[in-house]
Please model this.
Amino acid sequence: MDRAFNPDRYDADGQLVLASAEGGGGGGTHKATSGPWTTASGVAGELHRDMQTAMTDLGHAHEGLGNGTSGFASAKALGALRPGWEERLSGIRDLCGHLDGEMKKVGVEFHENEVGTKKSFK
Model:
């Protein structure tokens, strides 16, 4: 099936040709760093804080909503929507907090691995 979509990956005999065969593959110019992991971690941490702020703002916006609005359908509808929004925002907040920590760990491990690999060639 793959051969029909990627014919250039096969030789004349129908055998799959690997990128590493006959000197193919990478040219040794690939540079990988922990930077993207650290950056992504920072973004996740920022989103975590933003979701917490959004939840606080939502709570403040609903303070006193019942005072003077009893009987209004719009006030009742807003009150019914709040738990769903709180659940969504807290789920996003928690996930972003988790991703922040995990991506920081990956960045540190990646950096330590790179340092160890470089030392092994000296």
Remarks:
- The radius of gyration is 26 Å.
- The first helix runs from residue 2 to 5.
- Helices lie at 2-5, 35-62, 73-120.
